[in-house]
Amino acid sequence: MPAAAADILVLGAGPVGCALALALEETNLKVRILEKKTKPSPFRPIALSYASRLILERLGVWDGLSPTPIETIHVSQAGAFGRTRMDAADAGVPALGYVIGYSDLESVLRSRARALMTDQEAESRCVVHAEGMSPEAKETAYDQEAVVGLVRTAPPAGAEAFERFTAEGPLALLPLGARYALIWSTRPERARALAAMPEAEFLAALAAAAGRRPGLPVAVEGRAVQRLALRVRTARVAERAVYIGNAAQTLHPVAGQGLNLGLRDAWELAQIWRDAQDPGDAALLARYAARRRLDAEATIRVTHWLAGGFTGGNRLSRIARGAALTALDVLPGPRRFFARRMIYGPSALP
Length: 350
Description:
The protein has 350 residues and is an alpha/beta fold. It contains 10 helices and 17 strands. The protein is 36% helix and 30% strand. A hairpin with a 2-residue loop joins β15 and β16. The longest helix is centred in the C-terminal third of the chain and has 28 residues, at 282-309. The two termini are 33 Å apart. 46% of the residues are buried.
């Protein structure tokens, strides 16, 4: 193959693309990130797992972030029995996760990777697609859209997150400073109505759906609606190309797994390439795809089930949800397994 301007060209200067480039800094590979001018991102809350914290620490960017830790997650369903509470101690970690604005995370990573960025296409031995979804992806649309925003409650948010399953979709309140980041998945027409209704009316609807445990909603800002769909690319690799993060899979936001899975994609690919002579070697890329298969498929199935199969308003659905939540609450073994699975994926520490 003729000489190239870079060994690896990363398409996408988002968190996953920047994480990959930073993870390869101490190798002999020449990496460039193609930076495209984009509009400022609207508010988007992100829940980082403890495993993602470990990755970001190893990249030297964690200390530049100011996330809010989640020490406890309270999971329940609206209008029926069944609840469980997962603590950091269940998983043997200092925090189950950390909440931060997507733009804040992106800004710190981009700043750290600035020297690796270019605005020009460059020849490379391997192209990494790390932003956007490829046209080859298979899409499964959910009959849901998400209302996002920042909610102030009385009393203020602490270190507890709330996930509440309703007949129309999951509702999450994630602590972000003294407020909650809201991700409320519901029918598309309902989501648009919630985003447009007067504040007092919206707060009353939220109080009714979320229950009393998070506190009384007293103010909301930054309401927006996000379309929800599962998009998965069948093949993670192609000839001298690899797909990671949203370019490989876009998930429903329930359980906050999307970006965490993408960061694990980036970390695993960097480990495969650490001593690589040719990053575009077909056998090497096939090895990466094989190593990521279990984590990706399992995470996709769990989130897809939680988004669709774990919702519904009929009596049997409510009973099944209640039984599952009650079992997690009274059985520490399964609760610990589920918590660690959501943190680390199917493997141990990254």
